[in-house]
Amino acid sequence: MIDINLDVEKCPLFQGMSKEQVKSILQCSHAMIREYKKGKLIFSQGDEPEFITILLNGSVIVANDTADGNQHIISIFNNAGDMFGEVFLFSFKRLYENFAYAEKDCEILCIPKRFLYAPCHNSCKQHNQMIANMLSILADKAYFLNQRVQILSCSSLRQKLIKIILKYSSGNVAKIPFGREQLASFLGSTRPSVSRELMKMQADGLIEIKKNYIKILDLKTFNKIK
């Protein structure tokens, strides 16, 4: 029987299930664990999705290549329980339009997608719960993509940065899960431009930067600009 070291409460796909129910699901679905070294492709553009992919440890980047040969980062996953690539599982197009690779050495839980098409022969409660959870996950992903469209539609880089800082803030402190290069790619900009604008925002008394943490010093102005 496959055994995973994962706090099931941190994985949206297993919400409402006990650890024993999750173990039963993994056995019934013939799930497997795959290991990927840093830089290794997990799936490529044009591949047909075969699995629900869940990060157990490490870090994964989902991206695509632009017409000018640059890499455009779609998202970064670095929390145990994060699911990625699921929006293509049930798409009529049937093929990945992005690629995913290991930013760091990682382990991925792979559950065959066919397991979600219909309840198993045992008609277990946890299988029905898993299908319901997937519907909620897809709805949340649609909401996330809508938020990103709103960020990218901003007229200035400062507005984009303010929206991303507010998105990841708790109270008046934001922990940005991107490095500068990755953040620039996510915002459709360049690293020098992003770094320069962040420095200007700090000089203007809007923020204070400490490594990956950004403290909002002027929330009132933030709310006006956003």
Overview of this protein structure:
It is a single chain. The chain starts with 18 loop residues before the first helix and ends with a helix. The chain is elongated, with a radius of gyration of 19 Å. Helices cover 34% and strands 26% of the residues. The protein folds into two domains: 8-151, Jelly Rolls (Sandwich), CATH 2.60.120; 154-225, Winged helix-like DNA-binding domain superfamily/Winged helix DNA-binding domain (Arc Repressor Mutant, subunit A, Orthogonal Bundle). The longest helix has 28 residues, at 125-152. A hairpin with a 2-residue loop joins strand 7 and strand 8 (173-175). The protein is built from six helices and ten strands; from the N terminus they run H-E-E-E-E-E-E-H-H-E-E-H-H-E-E-H. Strands 1, 2, 3, 4, 5 and 6 form a six-stranded antiparallel β-sheet that branches. Strands 7-8-10-9 form a four-stranded antiparallel β-sheet. It has helices at 19-29, 125-152, 157-167, 180-186, 191-203, 219-225, and strands spanning 32-36, 41-43, 51-65, 71-77, 83-84, 99-112, 169-170, 173-175, 207-210, 213-216. It has 226 residues and is of the alpha+beta class.
What do we call the CATH homologous superfamily of the largest domain?
A: Jelly Rolls
Tell me the overall shape. Answer: elongated
Sketch the major β-sheet. 6 strands, antiparallel
Q: Residue-averaged pLDDT, rounded?
A: 86
Which architecture of the largest domain per CATH? Sandwich
Number of helices: 6
Number of domains: 2
Which range best describes the helical content: under 10%, 10-25%, 25-40%, 40-55%, 55-70% or over 70%?
A: 25-40%
Name the helix and strand elements from N-terminus to C-terminus, one letter apiece: HEEEEEEHHEEHHEEH
Structural class: alpha+beta
Contiguous uncertain segments of 5+ residues: none
Quick one: how many beta strands? 10
Radius of gyration: 19 Å
If you consult CATH, what is the topology of the largest domain? Jelly Rolls
CATH class of the largest domain: Mainly Beta
The span between the termini is 50 Å
Work out the strand percent.
Answer: 25-35%
